[in-house]
Amino acid sequence: MGSEHLSNNVRRLRFEHDQMTQQQLADKVGVTRQTIIAIEAGNYAPSLPLAFRIARTFGVPIEQVFQYDE
Amino acid sequence: MSKLQKSAWFNLGLLTIGSLFALMCFYWAAGRIEKGFNYINVILFLLMLCFIIPAVYIIGQKKSYEAGFDEREKMINQRATSFSLWGLVIVLYLSCFTPFVALGGGNILKVVYLPVIFICTILTAQLIKSIAIIVQCALEEKDG
């Protein structure tokens, strides 16, 4: 459920992209707003396809969105 | 609130009310039926079948509705289903073994308790599933 080693910059990237709302991002990547909330809070680790869709929405490589801390 | 949460709250309310009503009706009917195989029992049995078959059909239809859930919601739903199966096994275990332990092997149990055990088992499984969905959603969305 949780993602202890996975951190992300989704919230920062949203604000850098014209203050995109959670709902707008959710609509673009095809999930619910609650899933975006859970990802941002670090309570849910998304699947690889979803992580790629989020990165592509922001136009950045996936490493800039998600980081795995050893 | 997402579709999954709405569905869980709806199930929780509807099944609680429906099952309590079914139990009350059953107790009311059971108190009046003393004979074995008679037309009232057959009618009651057929009425219950008329309730169970559409219920199973509706649950089957809901699976296609769940296709609209996203990956996190599907995972929450699967986890809640496994919790509910565990709950179902525990309720069945308790309802079958508690009388055995309390009364002993030589005693007799009224058959009226068998449908009650069935209704309670279904109710418990659905209650656990709905509560598990609501709790998981709340835990994952906190600090949002």
Characterize the structure shown:
The complex is a heterodimer of chains A (70) and B (144). Chain A has a single domain, classed as lambda repressor-like DNA-binding domains (434 Repressor (Amino-terminal Domain)), CATH 1.10.260. In chain A, 54% of the residues lie in helices and 9% in strands. Chain A is built from five helices and two strands. Chain A has helices spanning 10-16, 22-29, 33-40, 48-58, 62-65, and strands spanning 6-8, 66-68. A two-stranded antiparallel sheet of chain A has the order 1-2. Chain B is globular, with a radius of gyration of 18 Å. Chain B has helices at residues 3-30, 39-65, 71-103, 113-141. Chain B is an all-alpha fold. Chain B has four helices and no strands. At the A-B interface, helix 3 of A face helix 3 and helix 4 of B.
Features:
heterodimer, A: 70 residues, mainly alpha, 434 Repressor (Amino-terminal Domain), two-stranded antiparallel ribbon, 2 strands, B: 144 residues, 4 helices, 0% strand, globular
* Gross geometry of chain A: globular
Low-confidence stretches of chain B: none
The number of E-state strands of chain B comes to 0
Largest sheet of chain A: 2 strands, antiparallel
* Order of SSEs of chain B: HHHH
Q: Looking at CATH, which topology of chain A would you report?
A: 434 Repressor (Amino-terminal Domain)
